[in-house]
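hey so u asked for the seq, here:
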Amino acid sequence: MAHTKAKGTSKLGRDSISKRLGVKIFGGMKAKTGDIIIRQRGSKFYAGENTAMGTDDTIYAKVDGVVKFQLKSIKKFDGSLEKTQVVAVEIVK
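ran it, structure tokens below
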């Protein structure tokens, strides 16, 4: 005989909502001041020229322009070089 009497509930089925992370404005696209370019956890992408990084690692545009992705070598604390992706906004006249 069953110990639980016809409840019909399950202990499974709980799932967290998605956080909608990722690139929002891709390279070559126009961005206005304050537009979010990338939402991320941690710093996979770094802020370059005319961009800034928020407290939750979100990268946003500081000026109007065109988004540009670059691969740069950045010196780490131990002196070694590491290739990182940098996001910049170029001002278009």
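DSSP finds no helices and eight strands in the chain. The chain has a mean pLDDT of 91.
lmk if thats what u needed
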